[in-house]
Design a protein that fits this description.
Blueprint: E1 9-14, E2 20-26, E3 33-38, H1 41-46, E4 50-51, E5 57-62, E6 68-71, E7 79-83, E8 91-96, E9 99-105, E10 117-122, H2 129-139, E11 143-148
Parallel strand pairs: 3-10, 5-11
Antiparallel strand pairs: 1-2, 2-5, 4-9, 6-7, 7-8, 8-9
Length: about 150
């Protein structure tokens, strides 16, 4: 983690084996990082805890695309990116009006002081699809780039 008072926070992370890695450039206040533990069965079973900041930028690098599974459940509006080698889910994307939005799993960060994470449970049960997509467009990472290594 790189922090300078006058510059954005840079957070690096990825799956356990390194097949999927990311750099999150957090723009704006990063005194604490919201970390939301979704109560759905998929997130619970994977121990995933998500964060995003709308003004941030995410660069995702995939070494071997054949070793990544894209999984959708429930409303089919979010894609979980799972590494087939180590089983970790470092990010989720959602396509909204031809734009990719994302959240990243704080449990996949490298070198982040745990005290910076503001962990809290969250439930989206009963949320209508249109409301869900609007929430993501407002709050998820709005600049997402994928690259191959």
């Amino acid at each position: 983690m790189t922090v300078h008072s006058d510059s954005p926070l840079t957070l690096d992370g990825g799956c356990h084996c390194g097949n999927i890695s990311f750099t999150l450039t957090w723009r704006g206040d990063a005194g604490t990082i919201p970390a939301r533990a979704c109560s759905c069965s998929f997130c619970t079973k994977h121990g995933a805890v998500w964060t995003a900041h709308h003004g941030s930028e995410l660069t995702v690098t995939v070494k071997s695309a054949e070793r990544v599974t894209e999984y959708q459940q429930g409303t089919l509006t979010a894609t979980f990116h799972l590494c087939n080698v180590c089983g970790v889910v470092p990010l989720v994307t959602s396509e909204i009006e031809a734009r990719t939005y994302a959240v990243v799993n704080v449990n996949t960060f490298r070198d982040v002081d745990e005290s910076r994470l503001d962990r809290a449970p969250v439930s989206f049960d009963g949320e209508e699809t249109a409301d869900r997509l609007a929430r993501r467009a407002r709050g998820w990472i709005g600049t997402v780039t994928f690259s191959a290594k």
